[in-house]
Amino acid sequence: MSLILFTFSTFAQGESILKLFPGKWKMISEKTEYYEEWELLNENEMVGVGFSIEEGDTVLSEQLYLKKFSDQWAYVALPVNQTITLFALSEYSENKFTFENKEHDYPQKIIYEFTADAKLNAATEGIIEGELMRRDFNYIRIEK
């Protein structure tokens, strides 16, 4: 019976991920427009990009991937001029996903929480010099 529940649980993760992430998300700060854009490749993989618009120029900040390895979803980040980092899905609910890599310097957690009104709160968390640091990024969906 636990195998059936685990299979359903993995299926439910994928259904929510595939439904919520795709599209173009925008965040405006005082000087810059930030974007995350996600495209569904297939039922096991999404590709994304994080970029900003600064003084009319598009500036790439990172390539992103959501990929299912066997029965485990992972968030893969490839920031510009840095190495690739993998974060395993550690917690999830219908609209909130936490990806974690305890060995990474910062962040150790990446959190995506979607709301019914086409808003997304993305956050990074980690311990730096013994203190919990958190950065929040509040996006709105501008394209599906």
Describe the 3D structure.
The protein is mostly beta strands. The protein has a single domain (2-143), classed as Calycin beta-barrel core domain (Lipocalin, Beta Barrel). It has 1 helix and 10 strands; from the N terminus they run H-E-E-E-E-E-E-E-E-E-E. Strands 1-2-3-4-5-6-7-8-9-10 form a 10-stranded antiparallel beta barrel. It is globular and about 40 Å long. The relative contact order is 0.15.
Brief digest:
The protein has one helix and ten strands. It has 144 residues and is mostly beta strands. The longest helix is centred in the N-terminal third of the chain and has 19 residues.
Detail the topology: elements first, then pairings.
Layout: H1 2-20, E1 23-28, E2 33-42, E3 45-54, E4 57-69, E5 72-79, E6 85-92, E7 96-100, E8 109-115, E9 119-128, E10 131-143
Antiparallel strand pairs: 1-2, 1-10, 2-3, 3-4, 4-5, 5-6, 6-7, 7-8, 8-9, 9-10
Question: Which descriptors would you attach to this protein?
Answer:
single chain; 144 residues; mainly beta; Lipocalin; 10 strands; disordered N terminus
Q: Sheet bearing the most strands, described? A: 10 strands, antiparallel, barrel
Radius of gyration: 15 Å
Q: Write the CATH homologous superfamily.
A: Calycin beta-barrel core domain
User: According to CATH, what is the class?
Assistant: Mainly Beta
Q: List the domain count as a whole number.
A: 1
Q: Summarize the amount of helix as a percent range.
A: 10-25%
Please work out how many helical segments DSSP would assign: 1
CATH architecture: Beta Barrel
| Uncertain spans | 1-11
Structural shape = globular
Secondary-structure element string: HEEEEEEEEEE
Give the amount of beta strand, in percent.
over 45%
Which fold does the CATH topology refer to? Lipocalin
Number of strands: 10
What separation lies between the terminal Cα atoms? 37 Å
Give average pLDDT, whole number.
89
